[in-house]
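We emphasize that the prediction below concerns an isolated chain of 242 residues; any contacts that depend on oligomerization or on bound cofactors are therefore not represented. The input was used exactly as deposited, without trimming of termini.
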Amino acid sequence: MEIAAEAAPTEIVESLSRSGFSHANPEWEIIMDIQIIKADEALRERYTEEIAPLVHATGPVSYDYHFPKREIFDDIVSRSWLTDGTLFAADATHLALEGDELLGIEIGFHGPEYRERQAALGPLWGDMMAAGGLTQDDVSEVLERSDHASWLNPVIHSRVYYVHALSVKPEARGKRVGMRLLSDAMDRARKAGNRGLQLDVLSDNPAVNFYQSMGLELLVESRAPKPEEHGVPPEWRMGIRF
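Result of the prediction step, given as a token string:
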């Protein structure tokens, strides 16, 4: 499928200009070849198998606490990706593509949707049990651990755009894919009338430095005793006001 080119957001052009990039610079051409587009039905089917690993990479120790069995995590994320209105759905995802190659993703939505999308996962658990890949004990364990970890995520207020997942493949690092994805999310959030953008990140994640370089600041640090006993570090809510 041919993908139409998009214009780079103003802040990206200005940032690259300050960094010495220009249209004649080969590194600029590499960046301009990367397209940020909203996932549609065709792209949803094409990239289903690549989504769960990208999401997991945003916080492995946290997701491994929530989901003691990795196959359960992969299954629920893949099913959610194909189901609109759920937490990891394609309808909330923008993709970074270089040709047909998926380089990274940004999953985000209007803040109050978080709990709605989380609740919408319910029927998918039933589907997984019906398919024989999940037992009632598995569900009970995931729900108990998720309840323990829920204290790590403060309430997201209205008129705030929430980035639920921002992930770039290791082989694509150095191409400023994360910058493109986050700048695009900020641009869309502003145009939608939001007052700011927020996200949650584990405090020991190197991405903290990247978010700070993009203008986000620490808003609150959250701890939860039981997850911390299993090696889950404090969670940082970071954000930027528009």
